[in-house]
Specification:
Strand content: 15-25%
Shape: globular
Radius of gyration: 24 Å
Distance between the termini: 52 Å
Largest sheet: 7 strands, mixed
Number of strands: 22
Length: 564
């Protein structure tokens, strides 16, 4: 019998580290890791030891004879990965991370991590693991709750993925790590003051805004950011008061990545099903009154180039009472896409995506059921209406190869219109500038070399300043991708410590605590956050849910401070 990795996989690679026969791929140092949808177990090499099951932070690994009906297909998917990428075991290829060696007279090395999401937590773990007792890590976040998109970005019906926060909780229990939640860098403490109290500052602030369409009518009421909508239904305090018009029968999502599919799925899933999750109460109440019966997901390129993963596409089939609609004409591939699909360069999951799209296209649909319509080769030309969005004007695209051979979407003369009162822009997240640091406006990231911040104007590194996560590489990868990303950054930090970074005198942790006590007396530590965590999960237990999120910042702080 073999073990099988399923849909919830987050690419954390903890399973890779414990496998005694090295049969899980891709590893973090494999070039395929950067783009893989998930990890896979080679079935003929697996010795059925179960070590990977215990290590998995999201409970995504099961014996093949214990798979649910929804996950049964992953036995074949795991095996087929190795048909394309045969297992090669090289025990000599492993390179351990570099230790952070701090001279005794310069210890402790003090490191600030700005952000408390997955990228930040993995960075803190790497610093403490590689630095041992000679380091101190202070984590800062503007919210009084940690975990970033793991709390406020993962779809509520993906509870398996959310339990990675249990792993994060274990990480931050290390005594070298302290938290200052509810502290906003730039308001309560400046970048310069962080450097005065730390030898190094690692920014893991993510990508908090969305990219714009750049078409007429984009700013009309009813045209909204999918980024904000996700934050709204996940209970992010900054968006708890948002209001969305769900009175129409159709919504249109522009873009076809995983976030677009998440939004579409939430809009048509039965509220009774959502009530079993930790979706925000205000969102659940609004969705119970929703009239939306159809969500059109519009991608500008063809199905071969679609940004969603195969496992999210397959997962649409598990939504009860919802038809997935695909026009067979959209699956008639141009010669370039067809050639790529048949080539060795085509990534492993792409043929499976096309297979599933063809399966959806072959089905007969029930007009009485809600539906998600996947459309390809279409771009919005404009949004218009009388004072608010009433329709999206769509131009039909064709794929044209440029001089480099890259396919780009080019508008044709064919146009159509989609009547709708709600348009959700989902064409990518984008980072925002950090005061005092250089910023790449085109890419929406802080310029860096492997995580070490560089200033293009000075043609050199910014001493003691680093980045990890989306603000470093852009909005790509999965939760677990941040582990490798953080490791790369901390390697640069280790190099700089070896070169003398820790020799600069800085203020102590006690001095930092005193400074913040005067400026932000309601700053929250991890022990205090756990009071809120316990209150939310207790409220959830009473109603048969994982948790009931508190979405008012002051109420959150009052619970954490024992005032409520």
């Amino acid at each position: 019998m073999t073990y099988v990795i399923t849909q919830a996989c987050c690419n954390d690679t903890a399973c890779v580290d414990v496998c005694p026969v090295d049969c899980i791929r891709p590893t973090a140092d494999d070039e395929l890791f950067a783009t893989t949808e998930q990890l896979y177990i080679e079935p003929t090499t697996c010795i059925d030891c179960g070590a990977c099951v215990d290590a998995c932070p999201v409970d995504a690994i099961f014996p093949e004879d214990q798979l649910s009906e929804e996950n049964a297909k992953y036995t074949q998917i795991n095996a087929e990965y190795f048909d394309k990428h045969p297992l090669v075991v090289d025990w000599d290829s492993f390179v351990p991370p570099s230790p952070i060696v701090v001279p005794k007279d310069q210890a402790p090395l003090r490191v600030a991590v700005v952000g408390a999401g997955p990228a930040a937590t993995y960075a803190a773990e790497a610093v403490v693991t590689q630095g041992g007792r000679s380091v101190e890590v202070d984590i800062f976040d503007c919210l009084p709750s940690p975990w970033g998109l793991a709390r406020a970005g993962v779809a509520p019906d993906h509870q398996g993925t959310r339990i990675i926060t249990d792993t994060f909780e274990t990480i931050v229990r290390k005594p070298a790590i302290a938290a200052h939640l509810g502290v906003e860098v730039g308001t309560h403490i400046s970048h310069e003051e962080l450097l005065a109290h730390h030898h190094a500052v690692i920014y893991a602030v993510g990508a908090s805004t969305d990219r714009h369409l750049g078409v007429p009518g984009e700013d009309l009421p009813g045209s909204v950011s999918a980024t904000d909508f996700v934050a709204w239904y996940n209970g992010h305090p900054d968006h708890a008061g948002d209001v969305y018009d769900l009175s129409g029968e159709r919504a249109v999502v522009i873009g076809n990545g995983n976030v677009a599919l998440d939004v579409a799925r939430v809009l048509v899933t039965s509220p009774d099903e959502l009530a079993k999750t930790d979706i925000a109460d205000h969102a659940l109440a609004a969705l119970r009154q929703s009239n939306i019966r159809e969500v059109v997901v519009l991608g500008r390129r063809g199905p071969v180039q679609a940004a969603f993963t195969s496992k999210e596409l397959m997962g649409l089939d598990d939504v009860p009472g919802v038809d997935i609609v695909v026009d067979p004409a959209d699956l008639e591939l141009d010669e370039h896409s067809a050639a790529f699909l048949a080539s060795d360069e085509c990534p492993f999951p792409v043929p499976r995506k096309i297979e599933w799209l063809r399966e959806y296209a072959s089905r007969t649909h029930d007009p009485a059921r809600k539906r998600i319509v996947l459309r390809f080769l279409g771009s919005p030309e404009s949004l218009d209406g009388d004072g608010r969005v009433e329709r999206v004007n769509v131009v039909r695209n064709e794929l044209v190869a440029d001089e480099s051979g890259r396919l780009r979407a080019q508008a044709t003369d064919a146009t159509s219109a989609l009547e709708t009162g709600l348009v959700l822009r989902s064409i990518g997240y984008r980072g925002t500038p950090v005061a005092g640091l250089p910023f790449d406006e085109r890419r929406g990231v802080i310029p860096n070399e492997a995580g070490r911040v560089v200033d293009p104007d000075r043609d050199g590194p910014v001493e003691g300043v680093y980045v990890t996560g989306w603000i470093k590489r852009g909005p790509t990868g999965t939760l677990g991708t941040n582990k490798k990303c953080a490791g790369e950054t901390v390697e640069k930090l280790a190099e700089d410590v070896k070169a003398g970074l820790s020799g600069r005198p800085v203020e102590s942790r006690e001095a930092l605590d005193k400074l913040l006590a005067g400026r932000c007396p309601d700053a929250v530590g991890f022990d205090e956050w756990r009071l809120l965590d316990q209150a939310e999960t207790a409220a959830g237990k009473e109603s048969g849910r994982p948790r009931v999120k508190v979405t008012d910042v002051q109420v959150m702080i009052d619970i954490e401070k024992g005032r409520s």
